[in-house]
Amino acid sequence: xxxxxxxxxxxxxxxxxxxxxxxxxxxxxxxxxxxxxxxxxxxxxxxxxxxxxxxxxxxxxxxxxxxxxxxxxxxxxxxxxxxxxxxxxxxxxxxxxxxxxxxxxxxxxxxxxxxxxxxxxxxxxxxxxxxxxxxxx
Length: 137
What we know:
Layout: H1 3-16, H2 23-32, H3 45-54, H4 67-76, H5 89-98, H6 111-120, H7 125-134
């Protein structure tokens, strides 16, 4: 077996050993390496928050993120918005305020959300025209 493949198998085995650790050891490991959440069998809210606070993009490895976890991910890294399924209006506004490129990830935005975004982003003509494309203005 070649060395690269052997190293990969060793690292995967080490990640799966995380499930054998105590609660506090798991939590500290996830705070250090949020990516490890993907190997946890039981993803409690505490582990989820630790993972997304370490890096918001880790939300893509969480099986069932709740509202609090989604907000924490956006606050940690607004670009993690692209991994969030069914975001609330508040999540959309926060993500777009941080980075207007997140507008491209909006799918079927409500009229109420579009009005909020128009009120906030009226000064940015390119963004205004993009939002206007969603509506019948």
